[in-house]
């Protein structure tokens, strides 16, 4: 556990010293500030516009960091050969992978947290006070974080056996596919044929279901969410990450580093 | 018989080549050798001979196609064994956003060192490699030689029993090389097993109890540096001073003049006859030196032999 924590801490330290991430978070906060202005010209729906735009900004910036930093977590270490010295320490390859994953998720937590604080301050500015319904926006941010953790795990898996460019394409592709899970399950058999319907239904259970994490509408209207959804999404994200990281460990454990 | 520090048995490594990885290229063939505890072993060979491949296999960076190896009696797949091993990669590169002290502190965590112990060891190692004044500078600003020193510091940070160094003198100026040689000698005196690859033969001759020569992925020989090139001198050089008189003219005709002295090479069995001839010619004997082939000559001979074999195979293939 100490070894995993050491790798995580170093990954986090690398991200903290990378100015690009600061720029991205700054850009998100700027978007949230812009949402206040847009809200002011949207009479009667200021809060809805602010929360929707704010959560979208958090999600998009988080995704950019998760995908682009995620695919570089392992491949950059191989390319620069920094991994050689590291693997000569008493450190198992799966421990390295889990540590890298943990480090980026920690980075995303801090970044997303900073952006969430920005969103809450913007809400406070617009509404002058926060009600219990606004807690849904916090839950929405938490769900974005869970979604990002799955994206990081997928990016790590792909970067273990393919180039950075392909890993970005595969991860982005799976993310987009994961937004259309219910559509895949409800395909009209009379139009696509029963074989295609079975195929897409089957594959929809393998793909990450990112629709589960989309509660933006509820957050925008300050509607409370059932507690069971939080538990369900947390367990789903943990299990999905564990399976993907397990697969990544198997692939990476057999990889010859050049 | 005591357990060897490093034991390699029939280690072979093939790399896939070609667009579809359907062909393979053999980088290391059936390598077997033993390095005893406390020994300083030089692994010699030209670039691309298979030295780094062997070291990467030992460190678990790549996996063998066949064969096995053990370090301190444990298989190389056992990661816990790394607690007793230090490794310096060839042309090391480290996280450029860290300082040397931060990097060493990070690596020390993997050995379970507590905060105070880490601080003490890091300071000691930086001093040892002469980087104590640069400890707070980010590694991105380090020269190649400085990175090599950091690499050496991280390799011996945890006081390992076996130290494996891949081209430790590479990128260093003469002073740096001298300092690294001192560190290797100190490790040797401290009873550590040192296994290092190099193509600088004088370093191997100076530092090693034993050397192994590898060319074209095949081990050509293992032994003491003098043993490997053949202890028995084939020729003797006789150096003498002689006046330019008629008496010594025949003798002088057989020798070559170097400065004010003459030197001639004779087969070992003729040495006493040659000394008698020098005396009879009224010349003054200055030195009698056995001419042994140097490690470098042996090394070049092997490389040329390997190239000739490769060319012969290519010709017969055509």
Give a written overview of the molecule.
The complex is a heterodimer of chains A (258) and B (318). Chain A is mainly alpha-helical. Chain A has one domain (2-253). Chain A contains 12 helices and no strands. Chain A is globular and about 60 Å long. The mean pLDDT of chain A is 87. Chain B is α/β, with parallel strands linked by helices. Chain B folds into 2 domains: 6-228, P-loop containing nucleotide triphosphate hydrolases (Rossmann fold), CATH 3.40.50.300; 235-291, Alpha-Beta Plaits, CATH 3.30.70. Chain B has 10 helices and 14 strands. The two termini of chain B are 50 Å apart. The model of chain B has no long low-confidence stretch (mean pLDDT 85).
Question: What labels would you give this structure?
Answer:
heterodimer; A: 258 residues; mainly alpha; 0% strand; B: 318 residues; alpha/beta; Rossmann fold; Alpha-Beta Plaits; 2 domains; six-stranded mixed sheet; 10 helices
CATH level-four homologous superfamily name of the largest domain in chain B: P-loop containing nucleotide triphosphate hydrolases
How far is the N terminus from the C terminus of chain B? 50 Å
Kindly state the percentage of residues in helix of chain A.
over 70%
The mean pLDDT of chain A is: 87
DSSP strand tally of chain A:
0
**Average of pLDDT of chain B:** 85
Label the structural class of chain B.
Answer: alpha/beta
Into which percent range does the helicity of residues of chain B fall? 25-40%
As a percent range, the share of strand residues of chain B is 25-35%
Rg of chain A from C-alpha positions? 20 Å
Largest sheet of chain B: 6 strands, mixed
Overall, the morphology of chain B is globular
Q: What is the first-to-last residue Cα distance of chain A?
A: 28 Å
* Amount of beta strand of chain A: under 5%
Q: Write the element-wise H/E pattern of chain A from the N-terminal end onward.
A: HHHHHHHHHHHH
């Amino acid at each position: 556990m100490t070894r995993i924590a050491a790798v995580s801490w170093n990954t986090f330290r690398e991200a903290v010293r990378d100015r690009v991430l600061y720029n991205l978070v700054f850009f998100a906060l700027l978007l949230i500030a812009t949402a206040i202005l847009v809200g002011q010209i949207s009479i009667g729906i200021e809060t809805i516009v602010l929360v929707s735009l704010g959560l979208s900004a958090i999600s998009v910036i988080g995704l950019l960091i998760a995908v682009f930093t995620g695919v570089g977590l392992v491949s950059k270490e191989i390319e620069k050969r920094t991994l050689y010295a590291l693997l000569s320490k008493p450190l198992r390859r799966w421990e390295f992978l889990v540590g890298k994953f943990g480090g980026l998720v920690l980075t995303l937590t801090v970044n997303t947290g900073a952006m969430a604080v920005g969103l809450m301050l913007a809400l406070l500015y617009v509404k002058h006070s926060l009600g219990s319904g606004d807690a849904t926006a916090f839950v929405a941010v938490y769900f974005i974080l869970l979604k990002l953790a799955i994206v990081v795990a997928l990016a790590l898996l792909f970067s273990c056996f393919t180039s950075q460019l392909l890993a970005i394409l595969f991860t982005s592709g799976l993310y987009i596919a994961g937004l259309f899970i219910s559509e895949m399950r409800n395909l009209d058999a009379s139009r696509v044929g029963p074989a295609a319907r079975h195929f897409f239904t089957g594959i929809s259970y393998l793909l990450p279901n990112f629709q589960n994490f989309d509660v933006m509408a509820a957050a925008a209207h300050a509607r409370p969410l059932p507690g069971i959804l939080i538990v369900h999404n947390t367990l789903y994200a943990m299990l999905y990450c564990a399976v993907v990281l397990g697969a990544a460990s198997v692939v990476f454990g057999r990889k010859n580093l050049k | 018989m005591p357990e060897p520090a490093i034991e390699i048995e029939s280690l072979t490594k093939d790399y896939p080549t070609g667009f579809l990885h359907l062909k393979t290229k053999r980088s290391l063939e059936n390598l077997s050798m033993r390095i005893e505890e406390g020994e300083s072993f030089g692994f010699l060979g030209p670039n691309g001979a298979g030295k780094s491949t062997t070291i990467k296999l030992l460190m678990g960076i790549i996996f063998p196609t066949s064969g096995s190896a053990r370090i301190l009696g444990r298989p190389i797949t056992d990661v816990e064994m790394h607690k007793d091993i230090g490794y310096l990669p060839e042309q090391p590169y480290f996280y450029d956003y860290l300082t040397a002290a931060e990097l060493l502190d990070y690596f020390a965590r993997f050995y379970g060192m507590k905060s105070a112990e880490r601080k003490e060891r890091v300071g000691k190692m930086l001093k040892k490699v002469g980087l104590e004044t640069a400890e707070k500078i980010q590694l991105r600003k380090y020269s190649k030689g400085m990175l090599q020193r950091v690499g050496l510091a991280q390799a011996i940070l945890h006081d390992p029993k076996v130290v494996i160094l891949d081209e430790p003198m590479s990128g260093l100026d003469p002073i740096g090389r001298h300092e690294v040689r001192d560190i290797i000698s100190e490790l040797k005196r401290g009873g550590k097993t040192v296994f290092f690859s190099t193509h600088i033969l004088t370093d191997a001759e100076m530092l090693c109890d034993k050397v192994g020569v590898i060319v074209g992925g095949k081990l050509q020989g293992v032994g003491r540096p003098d043993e490997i090139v053949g202890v028995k001198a084939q020729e003797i050089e006789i150096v003498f001073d002689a006046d330019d008189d008629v008496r010594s003219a025949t003798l002088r005709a057989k020798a070559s003049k170097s400065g004010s002295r003459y030197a001639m090479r004779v087969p070992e069995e003729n040495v006493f006859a040659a000394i008698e001839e020098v005396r009879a010619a009224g010349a003054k004997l200055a030195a009698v030196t056995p001419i042994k082939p140097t490690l470098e000559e042996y090394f070049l001979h092997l490389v040329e032999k390997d190239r000739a074999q490769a060319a012969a195979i290519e010709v017969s293939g055509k």
